[in-house]
Amino acid sequence: IEDNDHERLYRQIQKMVLAVGEDEVEELRQRYKNIKDIFPRLRPMERDEIAKVEPKLVAGRSSDTEIFALYNPDGHTVDYGKTARSFARKANETDTTVDYFFNTKIDTVEEKGAGYTVISQHGNRLEGRSVVMAVGAASLRFAHSMGLKRNWILLPVAGNFFCASKQVNGKVYMMQLESIPFAAVH
């Protein structure tokens, strides 16, 4: 995906799930046996391979501490700022009027016919065929409050970010729920 300035909105980046300690290592080894056929590019890594790909994960760690990882070279990271600016530019290129409201509390979202009416704290009424709600970790609760449940997929995008010197070469996840090995909030 590229925006109008042909800037990359995402980039490919490796990702890894890291197990630390005997219990986590055993659990992750078992998970790998169960999912290796589903994820053919996923591969197990022992300490020496981990050190080659992500040296900071091994540096200074006691050799008595068992570590093991599942590695996937095919991860991606999205620049959500560029993506949002790209959406705004594309929306402004249409013949439709586009209004932006920031830091505005939404009081109600009502389903109306083939679309929705959104009512803000100031009484603004916005109507559209679809609505995007950026409510982060509250996404599922918010959807349930609207009566949306089974046939909807919500992608929570949340987190705090800080700038620091480069420590790792890709995404490194701690052990997650078995059903979402690379997707839990991190």
Task: Walk me through this protein's architecture.
- The chain has 186 residues and is of the alpha+beta class.
- It is 22% helix and 25% strand.
- The chain is built from four helices and seven strands, in the order βαβαβαβββαβ.
- The protein has helices at 22-35, 47-53, 80-92, 139-145, and strands at residues 10-20, 43-45, 67-78, 106-112, 115-120, 125-128, 171-173.
- The strands form two sheets. The protein has a four-stranded mixed β-sheet. A three-stranded antiparallel β-sheet has the order 4-5-6, with no helix packed on it.
- A hairpin with a 2-residue loop joins strand 4 (106-112) and strand 5.
- The protein is elongated, with a radius of gyration of 21 Å.
Could you name the key traits of this structure?
186 residues, alpha+beta, 4-stranded mixed β-sheet, 3-stranded antiparallel β-sheet, 4 helices, 7 strands, 22% helix, 25% strand
Largest sheet: 4 strands, mixed
Structural class computed from helices and strand pairing: alpha+beta
Widest sheet, order of strands: 2-3-1-7
Average pLDDT score:
81
**Which bin fits the share of residues in helices?**
10-25%
Task: Count up the helices.
Answer: 4
Sequence of secondary-structure elements = EHEHEHEEEHE
* Poorly predicted runs of 5 or more residues: 1-6
CA(first)-CA(last) distance: 24 Å
Number of strands: 7
What would the principal axes of the Cα set say about the shape? elongated
Supply Rg. 21 Å
Q: Beta fraction of the residues? A: 15-25%
